[in-house]
Amino acid sequence: MSKRYSKVIEKLSNKEIVILDGAIGTELEKRGVQMDKTWSGSASLKFEILKKIHIDYIKAGAEIITTNTYPSNRIMLDAAGLGFRFEEINLKAINAAVEARIETDRDDVLIAGSLSHRFPIAHGDLQSNPTISVSKSYLRGVCDEMSEILSQNGCDFILLEMMYHPDRIKTVFDSAKNTNKPIWASFSARKSPEGKLLSLTDLVDFPFKELIQIVHDYNIDAVGINHTSLNIISETISEIKKVYNGPIIVYPDTGGWISPNWIFDHVIKPKDLKKKAHQWVKEGAQIIGGCCGTSPNHIKALSELKIAK
Prior knowledge:
The chain contains 11 helices and 12 strands. It is of the alpha/beta class.
């Protein structure tokens, strides 16, 4: 465990607010990088643009920046014919964050290594339905490969992002555990037409409260919610608090999605996100940031919560 990581854990133990960064993939798109079969996975090859995004988030007040590795596991890269560039793409993603920290002279900023169970999604699809299926053993190998490159190249901890598929999450958790790095885990949720809180996947109506039970089986330093609609964040915080008494992470999405592009219409204004986040802090959230659709301007607004508190 790095000294910088220990200092952030100390802040959380003292009930301080810690600011996470905002979206990486959609910010790359906003800055002109074309999305492809990997979504934003191969965009790490646009190294200078990616590094500038990390720098902008640090300058906006982010105390944690996240590697652009959520969509660049081997399953995603193979689907785009880029599997042979796995190491190149992912090392660029990690090094963009490392260099951003160096160039801003902010050695205190943490780098979160993003690990997911993301599968390819067909262009034009509104849902989370994957275009392929793989065995659990193959998925484990894919996650182990990603976990190793994250843990060995400068990430302070592993951030499990968008944990929503009940058949995949244990594989990802097990892989992260084997790195011996600290683990944070963020889940994703949706509301059914009947008003039930469910896991984000629309392949099965799986209760959110059952999905998050997995945290009992692992040593997790922070648990939370990401890539989830603003209007159900409070309910997810309430459910997480029933199973976990540590620091809670909140970083919602805003806008819309038609694969592989984000729809930036109706993205919440930074000042309005800050207002909502103030309520989430009251409800128990300590680590606050943004997911798809958010920008450095949103993080700058959120960083003002530390002053307000």
